[in-house]
Design brief:
Oligomer: single chain
Radius of gyration: 31 Å
Number of strands: 2
Distance between the termini: 89 Å
Largest sheet: 2 strands, antiparallel
Strand content: under 5%
Length: 120
Amino acid sequence: MKRLTRPDARTLAVVAALAALALLVTLVVSRRHDFLGVLMALICVLLATIAGVSVAAARQADEPVAAERSAAPGPPLDDPLAVDADTLDALDSRDALRAVRERRRAGGGFDDREGWISDR
């Protein structure tokens, strides 16, 4: 028995779009307002959805794979928000957090949790 091959995404998109267009023209010309008209309208929507998904699949197949784009993983060199391990270690320190709290209290500015800080 001969095995059928799967159609390409572009081929499927074209066939589904043409079938949806033909069904839409048939609906407009015949002006059916019964169960068959509703069924034909639903099939038209289904075919249009299949055409849209097939177009998206064809576009995705044309894009290069993410692994092929960047061969060397690692931190971006131009990223200003990159934080190294030493900075993370310093931010995790209890002494650093205590110093930030003391600076916030001594500054006499606005504290998010308590509102305006008075002379404490």
